[in-house]
Amino acid sequence: MSALDELVEVMARLRGPGGCPWDAEQTHASLVPYAIEEAHELAEAVEAREAGDGDDAHLQEELGDVLLQVVFHADIARAEGRFDVDDVARTLIEKLRRRHPHVFADLAVDGVADVVANWDAIKREEKPERGSALDGIPVSLPALARAEKTMSRAKRAGLPLPEAAAVDVGDDEAALGEALLALVRSASDRGLDAERALRTATRALEQRLRAEEADAT
C-alpha cells in the first residue's frame, strides 16, 4: 500500500464510526478557512526556504497540510456517494493531458509564451460560459494578489492597462517591497485603508477592462 492510499484510509477512519467527532462533523464549507490558512502557510514555507530561513522538512509538513485538505474534502464527498479522491485525481490527470497537447499530443509550440497562450485558449473552450478573460478570479483574494491577477489576465488578453506609476524600482524586489511599505505607512498615517483602497481601484479597473473587452467584440 502506498502512503497516499494509507492516508485515504486514515481519513476515512477518522471520519467513520468510532473515529473523531470533530472530523466527522466537518463540511466543505466549514473547511474553507483551513484551506485558505494552509495555502498561506505553504507559501510562507516556500518563501522561507528560498530566503534560507526554512528547510525541506518544514516545506514537506506544509505540503502535507494542504494535501490533507484535498483528502478531507474528497472523503466528505465519498461518504455522500458523490465522488472520491480517485475521481479528483482522474479529473486532474485528464485536465493536465488536455491542456498540454504539446506534450501528450502532436501540437508544436515555440517557447513558454506559446504554452501559456494555448493553455488560455483551451480553458476558454472548456468553459464557454466565461465571457471574459477576467472571469474566474476569486473575489476573496487579498487586494494585492487580486490586482496582480487581474492585470496579468488583462495583459495576456491584450486589454489596455493603465500606465505604470512614476516610481521605478527596476527589477529589485527588495526595493519594490520598501516602496509598497512606504505607501502603506503613508496611508496609515492619513487614516486610509490601503487594502480597501487597492480593492476598490482594482474593481474599477476590472469594470473598465470588461467594457473595453465588450466593445472589442
Automatic annotation (TrEMBL):
Cited CDD domains: NTP-PPase_MazG_Nterm
A Pfam family that the UniProt record links to this protein: MazG
GO biological process: dATP catabolic process; dGTP catabolic process; dTTP catabolic process; dUTP catabolic process; response to stress; TTP catabolic process; UTP catabolic process
Coiled coil: none
Transmembrane segments: none
Top-level taxon of origin: Bacteria
Residue span, NTP pyrophosphohydrolase MazG-like domain: 26-104
Keywords: Hydrolase
InterPro entries per the UniProt record, alphabetical: MazG-like_dom (IPR004518), NTP-PPase_MazG-like_N (IPR048015), NTP_PyrPHydrolase_MazG (IPR011551)
A single MF term (Gene Ontology): nucleoside triphosphate diphosphatase activity
NCBIfam families hit by this protein: mazG (TIGR00444)
Protein name, UniProt field: XTP/dITP diphosphohydrolase
Source species: Agrococcus jenensis
